[in-house]
Protein 1
Amino acid sequence: MTIKEAAEKTGVSVDNLRFYVKIGLIPAAPRTSSGIRNFDEATLSWVEFVLRFKRSGMPLETIRRYVELALQGDSTKQERKELLLAAKEDLLKKQEQIQESLDVINYKLDTYEQKCGPITAEMVAAWKAKQPSE
Amino acid sequence: MTIKEAAEKTGVSVDNLRFYVKIGLIPAAPRTSSGIRNFDEATLSWVEFVLRFKRSGMPLETIRRYVELALQGDSTKQERKELLLAAKEDLLKKQEQIQESLDVINYKLDTYEQKCGPITAEMVAAWKAKQPSE
DNA sequence: ATAAACCCTGAAGTTAACTCCAAGTCAAGA
DNA sequence: TCTTGACTTGGAGTTAACTTCAGGGTTTAT
């Protein structure tokens, strides 16, 4: 499979796929005798695996490190486990913070049904009181 | 309150506070006669409000736009509501994607108790089969 | 009244993650 | 065979969100 087809299948741009290979986020795909990348199923699986973590906001460097360790085999099991535990903590914290924002947004949307949201309204009022004009 | 005290209270660096004011993420704090910023409670409230959204990964430009609209008063109610609805969709999607990654991580952590995670193990095996050495 | 610590601005530098470009090689159809 | 389109690389450019710097003014404590 050419890099273009791989790009269509994964939804990642051609340039970006090459970039990911370059930084080691995806293992280097095999090449034809003339040097053209030939994406196989194994490499595509890596792309999908990597994308799932990327979508959750994990830094590429963290994912890259995990891929590097995984390719090194069983001896890196412990280190991978620690990396996953740290990543899990990050994601749980992120989830909480998103929930906090959702709570605020839902509250505001509720109150917008009646009038300007009271919390912001109060802040705007306090702000305006300090301003000479407007 | 000096900018340094505001920085300590909010956990945002002095430079970053000035940066946020500059890009309009926070309304400009009042100044003393000699031009030194004098952070008041109203401005601090804005900082806290903005930080909550920032922590959830919302782009600063989106938050900046919301602040701009809020300062313009009731006439922008509708536009703010639409902005909040869009932001809510983003956050819900992000939450789902984080959950997907958490599921994968939890599954891997479970299986790591016994041996190398089967999904990755399979991918590594497929990968190694293509490689001449190692 | 002077040194230390703090404040200001505008601009340049940094990092992550792309995104595009130039110049050249390779492959498939008329 | 010649064009057209896809592939290659290295490197430059972009955007978001900081971060640091240069050069100067202000406040405070001794």
Note: The first helix of chain B runs from residue 3 to 10.
Protein 2
Amino acid sequence: MPSHSLFEHVSHGSLGNKIFDILRDRILNEEYEHGQKLNELALANELKISRTPIREALKQLELEGLVESIPNKGVYVKGFSPRDIDDMFEIRCALEGLAIQLAIDRMDEEHLAKIKDVFELMEFYTAKKDQEKINDLNILYHETIYQATQSQYFEQLLKDVHYYVSVTSRHSITQPERLETAIQEHRAILDSIVTGDKELAKKTIQKHIRKTQTLVRAYYANKKK
Amino acid sequence: MPSHSLFEHVSHGSLGNKIFDILRDRILNEEYEHGQKLNELALANELKISRTPIREALKQLELEGLVESIPNKGVYVKGFSPRDIDDMFEIRCALEGLAIQLAIDRMDEEHLAKIKDVFELMEFYTAKKDQEKINDLNILYHETIYQATQSQYFEQLLKDVHYYVSVTSRHSITQPERLETAIQEHRAILDSIVTGDKELAKKTIQKHIRKTQTLVRAYYANKKK
DNA sequence: CCTTTCACTATTGTATACAATTATACAAGA
DNA sequence: TCTTGTATAATTGTATACAATAGTGAAAGG
């Protein structure tokens, strides 16, 4: 399970986890073609390690749904279709609506402080228009909410889904004014958390997700023509 | 990824996957204590195989959230608290409500036929009061709906969550009349699928899940005293 | 008597060797 | 020419050997 530190996520020690991160990034950045086979030995030679950690990473990728493993044949990259991404938005919309309500019930001072910190950093980098950092902080902002649920299932499920959506659709939103509206939406979410209004929080976060979904949809609709 | 055939789910060939199934069942049946360490060599000796497939299975368990892996120390079983189970019901309620609507949109004749088949078998074994088979068919019934969404994410997420809930709470419901009400609820769900009424389908399946959740909650509430 | 250090053991992490399975190529026959 | 069978090569699955790290306990010093 990759753990995200403030800006870069570094998996704990083992080689297998490092390889997982590398391969996942490659897949999400579409460096491999859809359906391409990932040869264990070739990867091992390329990365100058043995097959064992490669196999670990591939197993992990398989369970995350990024590759498909056919017994005695090999693993093949799957990639994401626009519909996959849209489905993930639907999942996020439903689960985050629940998660934020749970979070409000169960969170302690530390969680709240962390969300506030992250939000302030977002404001800072939004002013600077630093797209990279904003994107990382956006992931962190939502993950902090997931953590506050203190439910391993909400946290685990949402973390992965949100991470995939973020990475795959991070180039979909081109309007510069989105930075501004996004920070306003995150502020509204934070406000509703602080006041403890669970219904409002749910509505606010779902609205935020829908907004993003709409923009990503528009991107893919335009791309087709 | 374990694939369920009609009654028993058998993972494809590799030893690692077989071991995964064995260890998962042991954890879900509480044959290991919470926090107990799983020693690789001990398991390898017990099961008369090498450490390699054991490690594969453990990695898989880790990603499913059933064990926790501490680098260079080992993996420890996590188990489920009543709150974990309740959280999973919440997740199911939200996601299955969406999934059944997607399923209605995207399903083809084969999916529909399969659901009908499974339902008829459920009726058959309900008449016979064969608790074991009913439980398996219940899992299959819901999984078939997940499949019909033709969305790997809905399918993957819901399959695991539902399986865990089913296994961990399968002894929670003791009233014999639950068999009857359950089959009625499943019939209502099927009917709404057939007529293609998405809103009704959502309401019906969520009502079904809530009903089960309430019974499981009652079980744990009684257990405490 | 308690604490610290250091050596030893046990266990996990990685590499490599071997077995089993699958893909490929080429030849023989229809 | 197309199919089919077989041998060979390539690749995955499993076992084992080795390396690195963490745990344990006894001896030395305070």
Note: Chain A touches chain B through 34 residues (CB under 8 Å).
